[in-house]
Amino acid sequence: MLSTFGAREKAMYEIEINDKSYQVAPKSQKLNTGLINGNPYEIDFIKVKEGEYHLLYNNKSYNVELIKFLEDKKHMELLVNGNKYTVAVKDEFDALLENLGLDMSLGGAEKELKAPMPGLVVDVLVEVGQELKDGEPVLILEAMKMENVLKATGDVKVKSIEVTKGRAVEKNQVLVNFE
């Protein structure tokens, strides 16, 4: 499942499971061996069917069902042997952005979309009055030589658009207002 998030060899991940953090360093793309909080691990897993897996870890058997998966937010909900777990994954890039104070999300169904960093508005993808669902793109902001698609994190309606295509913006500048 981590491979769906784009696992890389020699990568380090911070995985939060029900508010408890783990540092995970897989040794290969297969993710079945590596280190968890500095301790070696080995996991055998097979896909039983779509959304269901069987794992062997520390001589224990686990049945895992994927309940919810939000790839763009690197978040999933799992049912493991009948117990529900919420899992969030951060890689080095996510940690770097967080340390720099750059958040690529809207942070919930807020009333304003603010620029997470200084940049240039490449495109405005919405119109006043348009209703958006969670995860739908709002606008494209170019920053640090990358195009970043800013998305709605809740169901919202566009009240006003405060920027135009081609305009430079500063960090925390209001880009779009929502109802």
From TrEMBL:
Q: Where is the Lipoyl-binding domain?
A: 110-179
Q: Which InterPro entries match?
A: Biotin_BS (IPR001882), Biotin_Carboxyl_Carrier/Decarb (IPR050709), Biotin_lipoyl (IPR000089), Single_hybrid_motif (IPR011053)
Please name the SUPFAM superfamilies in this protein's record: Single hybrid motif
Checking Pfam families in the record gives: Biotin_lipoyl
The record's keywords, sorted A to Z, are:
Biotin
Q: What is this protein called?
A: Acetyl-CoA carboxylase biotin carboxyl carrier protein subunit
Which organism is this entry from? Luteibaculum oceani
